[in-house]
Every structure is written in C-alpha cells, then in structure tokens.
Design goal:
Pemi-like Protein 1, Chain: D; 79 residues; 2 strands
Amino acid sequence: MGELIIDERGRVVIPKEIREKLDLKTNQRLIIQAREREIILKPAVSTEQFIHNLKGCVHGSRIKPSELKEIWGIEHAHH
C-alpha cells in the first residue's frame, strides 16, 4: 500500500511495483467502481477473454454466477 496524489485533472499514478505485480500494461483498460468510501480498480476483460474463460463451463459447470461476474468485471448480471 501507499499514498497517491490526485492531480489537477483528477489523475493518479499507479506505482510501478503494483503495476508489475498485477501485470498491468500501458493503455490497458480498467474498470473503476465506488463502494462506500473506497475506489476499486479492476482490469477490464476483453470479450474474447471472457468467451475463452466460459468455454466448457456451461453444462454441468461448478462455476458460480458470481465467479462469472468477477471474470467479466461486473457486479450485476444486467450490465
């Protein structure tokens, strides 16, 4: 953990150590969520990656709907 500063345009810089740990790349899309007094950033999942993660999990799957939402990076199924 560390501290960040919000600049005049509302930007923050994710420290290099965290970007490397999470394998975040330049120009990678992130999903931002506000939960109570927290800001949550998650890597966005491409449609191709989502479909790849679904292969073989529909019939007789043990994957829970909440896990599919997490793979897709959403909190509600209707998004």
